[in-house]
Amino acid sequence: MDGLEALRARYLGEIGAAADEAALEAVRLAALGRKGEISLRMRKLGGMDPEARKVAGPALNGLRDEVEAALRARRAALADAVLEARLQAEWLDVTLPARPRPGGSIHPVSQVMEELTAIFADMGFAVAEGPQVETDWHNFDALNIPPEHPARQEHDTFFLHRLEGDNRPPHVLRTHTSPVQIRAMLAQGAPLRVIAPGRVYRMDMDQTHTPMFHQVEGLAIDRDISMAQLKWVLEEFCRAFFEVEGVELRFRASHFPFTEPSAEVDIRCSWAGGQLKIGEGDDWLEILGSGMVHPHVLRSGGVDPAQWQGFAFGMGIDRIAMLKYGIPDLRAFFESDLRWLRHYGFAALEVPTLPGGLSR
After folding, report:
1. Which of 65, 128, 277, 340 could bond to 194 as cystine, CB 3.0-4.6 Å?
2. What is the pLDDT of residues 220-278, one digit of tens each?
3. How many C-beta atoms surround the C-beta of residue 286 within 10 A?
4. 281-288: long-range contacts, CB 8 A cutoff, minimum separation 24
5. Are strands 171-173 and 133-135 parallel, antiparallel or unpaired?
6. Quick one: residue 285, left, alpha or beta (phi over 0 = left, psi -120 to 50 = alpha)?
């Protein structure tokens, strides 16, 4: 078939000269489209005599295949050129220093738990732990809390659902960490000196209360334990925790089912200028409850109250964190606001120690 070599040279030249996808598509349509030159010539093969078709057919098929191969190659080359241009435009020197990223931080509650653990460990207290889902006996009965006490009502305590016919003792989300004291006495006996920090649950929610919060309770049992030793322990704790030299505590008679006598403890402070200062001023701030362990509680823990006696105390970890670090709203502790955490959080390497300082 005449002119195939010229046709081949022209289209291969136009394909090589195509500067972009649009120009390449125009060449393809001109050659191989429905009305393209090569397509029209192939349609004429049916009208040729057999001998001429034997010669023209392979030649046209070869030309079509060669043009299609050239189109694919040019299309790939154009794509590579586009990618290369993009790589040049978006070039990044990977040897440059990385962008600074915000470092992880420790939640104030976790930091305060570490701080008080360090303080009490220096006074010989070990850390005791217990389950957050407690039996009714460990949470109430063993602690001398009577059945008619308001804390044992469903409007104040989270009771776990019981299926009909379930004869197991009732279970609750623990309302304090005092059950850990019972478990520690049953496991270790006397003498004993432990603190029990952890989560507790009560049905309450406002600016100073949340349904889940944190407490730490302390227990010391020996043969000659007294309220004077309790006072010394609490004064040393407050002095170290609030990082002030002068601390004055005031004990006010109170009532707790698990201690007798019982006392609420206030600390001298000042609110001058709207800023809390511990250890000075003429105001008093309640910070914890305490007392001598009730004989019933000792017996529940397997300790003979005729031979042993002890003191106990408890305070809210979230509350003392608010006082020390000036956090105004308890609910913010549990809102997962990263801005808040960046403001009040602590660096991961700020491990509190008494010689190095509790907080920086």
Report:
1. 128
2. 999 989 999 999 999 999 999 998 888 899 999 999 999 999 999 999 988 888 788 88
3. 14
4. 284/250, 285/323, 287/238, 287/315, 287/319, 287/320, 287/323, 288/234, 288/264, 288/313, 288/314, 288/315
5. antiparallel
6. beta
pLDDT recorded at residue 332: 85
* Residue 301, token pair as written in the block: 């823990």
Hey, CA dihedral for 116, 119, 123, 128, is it positive or negative? Answer: positive
Residue 303 CA to residue 145 CA, distance in Å, equals 18
β-pairing, 192-201 vs 126-127, is: parallel
299-306 long-range contacts, CB within 8 A, separation 24+: 300/141, 300/142, 300/143, 300/144, 300/182, 300/185, 301/142, 301/181, 301/182, 301/184, 301/185, 301/186, 302/185, 302/186, 302/189, 303/185, 303/189, 303/190, 303/221
The residue with greater pLDDT, 165 or 208, is 165
Placement of tokens 């001998």 in the chain: 51
Quick one: pLDDT at residue 207? 59
Of 62, 79, 80, 78, which Cα lies nearest the Cα of 15? 78
Structure tokens at 222: 């020996």
Q: Put residue 198 in one of left, alpha, beta given phi > 0 → left and psi -120 to 50 → alpha.
A: left
| Token couple for 291 | 């007392």
